[in-house]
Fold this sequence. Notes:
Layout: E1 3-7, E2 10-13, E3 18-25, E4 34-39, E5 46-51, E6 58-60, E7 68-73, E8 78-83, E9 92-98, E10 115-120
Parallel strand pairs: 2-10
Antiparallel strand pairs: 1-3, 3-8, 4-5, 4-9, 5-6, 7-8, 9-10
Amino acid sequence: QVQLVESGGGLVQAGGSLRLSCAASGLTSDFYSIGWFRQAPGKEREGVACISASMHTTYYSENIKGRFTASRDNGKDTAYLQMNSLNPEDTAVYSCALCDYKAPGFGGAYWGRGTQVTVSS
């Protein structure tokens, strides 16, 4: 069965950086799109980034573009989210999931449990 496990969250001051990892297992091929999502308290979950299966294109939500970089290493079955210039509005539980860049909010399937990111002012 497909499992995604996130790590790397924590507490960081505004302006700081964090790198999240997402380890995937149970996938039968490397041809899948994988993405990052976040949910802040009291808000709906939003898609942050979606890396296409071909890895030729990564799609980002407008409010993090230029600050976050998503990547993947198929050899390690791991995806990453490098987050720079963090601000308190980025505080949320970050999850990875298989994504669909054509779907509203990048869709999402086979969710990980998430990792908490807290940005202090």
